[in-house]
Amino acid sequence: MKIIRVHLKERSYCVCIGRGILKHLPGYLKSLKLPQELFIVTNSQIKHRFGFALKSCLKKGGFSSFFYSSIDSEKAKSITNAVKLVEVLADYARQKKTAVLAFGGGVVGDLSSFIASIYKRGVPLVQVPTTLLAQIDSSIGGKTAIDLAIAKNLVGTFYQPRLVFCELDFLATLDKRQLRAGMSEAVKYAIIKDEGLFRFLEENYRQLFFKDMPALTHLVYECARIKSRIVQLDEREERGLRTILNFGHTIGHAIEAAGNYLKYSHGEALALGMLAACRLSQRLGMLDSAAYERILNLIAKLGLPQEIIALKEKDVIDAYKLDKKFIGRTNRLVLIKGIGRPVVCENVPQEAIHKAIKELFVY
Ligand SMILES: NC(=O)c1ccc[n+]([C@@H]2O[C@H](COP(=O)([O-])OP(=O)(O)OC[C@H]3O[C@@H](n4cnc5c(N)ncnc54)[C@H](O)[C@@H]3O)[C@@H](O)[C@H]2O)c1
Ligand SMILES: [Zn+2]
Asked: What separation, in Å, do the N-terminal and C-terminal C-alpha atoms of the chain show?
């Protein structure tokens, strides 16, 4: 098992990564002195696949578990659903101390970490992520989130888990689209922080799609390490360092929203957003065309989209403007000077941004 320690003073925790490691989970929970009664948030698909394995391993270790299955879609991150969930938690935890265990992808993770952070002003949280995206990104770093009708992730808290436990065997049942969603975030880490990881993705993408375990282990470990380091330096995004994790997300979110969160998955929209940010970097004279072509090629190899075919240009630009309105800044974009060389830019000319969005469309 590989372990990364996220150093955040009294909020420090371990990210455990490995294959066949689930049996060690109870031992870790005990060493953290977590309550014996666990409130597990998941969805019915994940419960059906892996619920029995989790429940029995916890039972062997002396823990009892209660499973709450939420709906399996981004809609689970609604205020209504969060209130319902916190009421079930309150009922369950009436006469006992409990910890919340998030068991699923990023949706389950964002929702359950949010309720763990608000119930009784915070109860212990453990993340057991089951998608590649959740193992390399959303389970680490303490951003909790639920959505409002006007935009995604508008309500949330910073609340660190006590433990992140990445069992790689869970990834065996992911389909290609779910794998790609995680790979898109991995490309983001590689572009902002690590040329070596970029090369690894170029050379090993086939093995990753075949779920070759040494390749997946390397990917999850390297990405989790990059995320943990950035979070350590800027836990609450106050020093502008964590901002680089938003690379590709500003325009990506507009694409996701314009497609009503159905036409493009988060990972697909992110790939398009990263390409727009790279094109913009090129236009502003920061990025040479060889680096741009290299990024475009990797995105193509991973089967991620390079152009928008399913949306209207106006809808994406309107969604982009709306997002800016809520963010309340003129604009702040993460651009790049090369692979591994991000730059946070403010007041990028609007026309240049709109042009970069327009160039994603094919006619
Ligand atoms: N908090 C953060 O820092 C952060 C970072 C990135 C993304 N996010 C959020 O994460 C969410 C996306 O996460 P996601 O991509 O994991 O999506 P998801 O949670 O919707 O999972 C994708 C699908 O995979 C299924 N699934 C989960 N584990 C599986 C497994 N082992 N085998 C087969 N199917 C499985 C789920 O049931 C779901 O249908 C978004 O809401 C996004 O906003 C949060
Ligand atoms: Zn993302």
From this structure: 49
- Whole-model pTM? 0.96
Exposure string over 337-362, b if 16+ CB within 10 A, otherwise e: eebebbeebeebeeeebeebbeebee
Index of the ligand 1 atom closest to the CA of residue 145: 1
**1 Cα to the center of ligand 2, angstroms:** 26
* Gap between the Cα atoms of 250 and 253, Å rounded: 5
* Protein residue closest via CA to atom 25 of ligand 1: 105
Query: Which letter, b or e, does each residue of 263-301 get, where b requires 16 or more Cβ atoms within 10 Å of its Cβ?
Result: ebbbbbbbbbbbbbbbbbbbebebbeeebbebbbebbee
Domain carrying residue 346: 242-358
Atom of ligand 1 nearest to the CA of 173: 32
Would you state the torsion angle of the CA atoms of residues 179, 134, 344, 303, taken in this order, to the nearest 10 degrees? Answer: 10
CATH number of the domain within which 127 lies = 3.40.50.1970
Query: Residue 297: CB within 6 Å of ligand 1?
Result: no
- Which pLDDT tens digit goes with each residue over 44-92? 999 999 999 999 999 999 999 999 999 999 899 999 999 999 999 999 9
Query: Among 174, 201, 226, which residue terminates a domain?
Result: 174
* Domains held by the chain: number: 2
Whether residue 11 lies inside any domain: the answer is yes
Q: Please give the share of the chain, as a percent, with pLDDT higher than 70.
A: 98
Which one of 110, 216, 227 would you pick to mutate in the ligand 1 pocket, going by the greatest count of ligand atoms within 8 A of its CB?
110
Q: Please return the burial class of 95, using the count of CB atoms within 10 Å of its CB with bins 0-12, 13-18 and 19+.
A: exposed
For ligand 1, atom 12, the nearest C-alpha belongs to: 106
For residue 224, is it left (φ>0), alpha (ψ between -120 and 50) or beta?
alpha
Q: Which ligand is nearest to the CA of 265?
A: 1
Residue 207 CA to residue 200 CA, distance in Å, equals 11
Please state whether 278 falls in left (phi above 0), alpha (psi between -120 and 50) or beta. alpha
